[in-house]
Design goal:
The structure is a single chain. This protein is mainly β. It folds into three domains: 12-118, Immunoglobulin-like, CATH 2.60.40; 122-254, Jelly Rolls (Sandwich), CATH 2.60.120; 258-395, Galactose-binding domain-like (Jelly Rolls, Sandwich), CATH 2.60.120. 4% of the residues lie in helices and 49% in strands. It has three helices and 34 strands. The strands form seven sheets. An eight-stranded antiparallel sheet has the order 5-9-8-20-17-22-12-11, with no helix packed on it. Strands 1, 23, 25, 28, 30, 31 and 33 form a seven-stranded mixed sheet that branches. Strand 8 and strand 9 (98-100) form a beta hairpin. The protein is globular and about 65 Å long. The protein starts with 6 loop residues before the first strand and ends with a strand.
Length: 398
């Protein structure tokens, strides 16, 4: 028998709040905000947070955005935890604010679409850092802050010599994916240089077809080694056309510090702490040789996710290797895997360097493909939650 056997999640409302965004169509399970018709606020997100909506059919390929929204800084479809970016237009004299479904991509309806919104710059619950145009230092003579409802951006960027810069202190170290939210009516061939914490990333600036039609551009991945102030700068390396772009925001999303997890043949999968996406403000991967785990887990809203590829379908035993300091045990945790949700209590192992292995039950994978597993605190018992070294998925032997 395992030391701490799993038990079903006791409250259906908590099941919806924690499990549903991962395993059910989002708009059917998120909490409805009556002020935003058709859109639903993601549970446990701090306003404005992220918004979800289910789209039943293509219907011209346009999805209306919420009326009078905060700044939208990203938009994408969701399928099995995978994000596919969407373009969007903000409200103007030519039409309403709306998302645009990809015309050349075959979509299996119903689909879930999500938008990220931001009211002020900073590191939000879930770990995302978004820095808005209003908080940038504008360096140059022409670029300026331009404001309209739901569309605050730096525009009038006529000279390649101008640039914009943000200064920010992250709440934790870790790996991040950088992205840029921008619009440009024309000027194919314009290139940018994005500098974050002393590292430079060349970026081909896309043509979006309108100055109010935005897209989120992936920039690159960077490791932030310390909790200290960093600078983020965007400049124009080559200008093709008469304007550089309208820029709305720059964002850093938590990313795994190790490579993708892909099953080799029928071998077990090891979901190590370094493979985790740490949706967190304080929790992080600790690379020190005497740690090598997820730690600093004092914030009950922080959570961890692992994405992986199964090549051999079937039943798998799931186990977690964890440690917990003396007097810190008892936190209640939700374990979400492949449509199954269970809870367990973190045992007191006497020391964070002393680990134990808990049996998390059997998960069934009906087909090869991409999956994800998440660990989310439900209730923090003491000052800290736990350290996690890894989760293992081992084929059940018959």
């Amino acid at each position: 028998m395992p030391k701490n056997p799993l038990r079903p999640l006791p409250r259906f409302a908590l099941f919806l709040a924690l499990a549903a965004p991962l395993i059910f169509p989002a708009a059917l399970t998120a909490q409805t905000n009556p002020a935003i018709s058709g859109w639903h606020a993601i549970p446990d997100s701090t306003p404005p947070g992220n918004l979800l909506r289910e789209v039943l059919q293509r219907d011209g390929g346009k999805v209306p955005l919420p009326p009078s929204p905060p700044e939208v800084t990203d938009a994408f479809t969701l399928y099995h935890g995978k994000r596919s970016p969407l373009d969007w237009t903000v409200a103007s004299s030519t039409g309403p604010a709306q998302l645009e479904l990809p015309a050349k991509t075959k979509l299996a309806f119903p689909i879930s679409v999500e938008v990220e919104t931001t009211e002020k710059s900073g590191q939000l619950p879930g770990g995302r850092i978004t820095l808005l145009a209003r908080d940038a230092h504008i360096l140059g003579s022409d670029a300026r802050l331009e404001s309209a409802p739901g569309d605050e951006h730096i525009g009038g960027w006529l000279k390649a010599a101008d640039s914009v810069q943000w200064d920010y202190k992250p709440t934790r170290w870790g790996m991040y994916d950088i992205s840029l939210t921008c619009a440009a009516e024309a000027g194919e061939g314009t290139t940018l240089m994005v500098e974050v914490a002393g590292k430079s990333f060349p970026v081909t600036r896309p043509v979006t077809g309108s100055w109010n039609r935005y897209v989120t551009v992936p920039v690159g991945r960077i490791y932030i080694p310390k909790e200290q102030p960093i600078s983020l700068k965007v400049s124009c390396a080559k200008l093709a056309g008469d304007r550089v772009m309208n820029i709305k925001a720059i964002s850093l999303h938590p990313a795994p510090e190790n490579g993708p997890i892909i099953q080799s043949g029928q071998a077990p999968l090891a979901l190590h702490a370094s493979n985790a996406i740490t949706h967190s403000v304080t929790m992080r991967f600790e690379p020190a040789t005497n740690k090598n785990c997820l730690g600093y887990w004092g914030n009950a809203k922080d959570w961890a996710e692992w994405q992986f590829t199964i090549n051999q379908p079937g039943d798998y035993n799931a186990r977690i290797n964890l440690g917990c300091g003396k007097g810190q045990g008892g936190s209640e945790i939700a374990f979400l895997l492949n449509g199954q949700t269970r809870t367990f209590l973190v045992p007191d192992t006497g020391d964070y360097h002393t680990h134990t292995i808990l049996d998390l039950g059997v998960a069934h994978f009906a087909a090869p493909g991409d999956y994800s597993v998440s660990i989310k605190p439900l209730k923090k018992k003491a000052g800290a939650i736990m350290d996690i070294e890894e989760i293992t998925l081992s084929p059940v032997t018959k």
